[in-house]
Amino acid sequence: MKNRKLFSLVFVSFFVGATSALSVAAGASTSEGSNAEASPVFGVTLPPGYRDWGFVSVAHEAGNNNDIRAILGNDVAMKALREGTLPFPEGSIIVRLAYAYVPSERNNAIFGREQSFVAGTPTNVQVEVKDSKRYASTGGWGYGQFENGKANPSVKIINSCFACHTKLPAASDLIFTTYSK
Ligand code: HEC
After folding, report:
1. Which long-range contacts (CB under 8 A, 24 or more apart) does 163-168 make?
2. pTM of the predicted model, to two decimals?
3. Pocket lining: 173 vs ligand 1, CB cutoff 6 Å
């Protein structure tokens, strides 16, 4: 009996040890930015729980994108947006979820005319992370783009982010979206 207890104790601690060693290893590889989860150039990863973050606003791009977007922020970013604090504080993260912009046959059938457009298939998720030291050369923001949870590996695409956002006046802290009440 005593032996069995000892055995399960040893077994449980081995198991716990092995799992934490695994998660440490996983954490190390994400922060290096050289895997499918981290975007090139900035090493930005998809922030855990971002889908449940606060609502900032929506946007619709016509033309080639033809999408509809929801912009969400983590708690730090939401507080800054609500209070109009600029520049954004360290640790602010803003995500932009884009979906195909599609007519809704089901809704239109009920309205009796073509007027309803809704979010179709997800296209991509873009992320902006504020870290003034790490991203000093790009206005304090790191950029990433994800499709189906995987980082877009294109350096060209990732370099286009700052190149466009930096066209905004510096006072905007390179963020286009404003908080919709
Ligand atoms: C040609 C210009 C352009 C490029 C390139 C661009 N953006 Fe943006 N971005 C915008 C505009 C305009 C908005 C606001 C309207 C919208 O969302 O359509 C925006 C909004 C955002 C937002 C919501 C917060 C904000 O700043 O308003 C995020 C997050 C974002 N972009 C990330 C990225 C990332 C990541 C990339 C690169 C993969 C990127 N953007 C490339 C123009 C651009």
Report:
1. 165/128, 165/139, 165/141, 166/138, 166/139
2. 0.84
3. no
181 falls within a domain? no
Q: What angle do CA 91, 161, 27 make, to 5 degrees?
A: 45
- What local confidence, expressed as pLDDT, does residue 22 receive? 38
Which CATH number goes with the domain that contains 158?
3.50.70.20
Question: Which range of residues forms the domain containing residue 167?
Answer: 37-172
Model pLDDT, residue 20: 39
89-119 residue pLDDT tens: 999 999 999 999 999 999 999 999 999 999 9
Amino acid of residue 61: E
Distance 45 CA to ligand 1 centre (A): 17
Atom of ligand 1 nearest to the CA of 65: 18
| Omega within 30 of 0 (cis) for the link into 48 | no
Instruction: Please give the tally of structural domains in the chain.
Output: 2
54 lies in the same domain as 127? yes
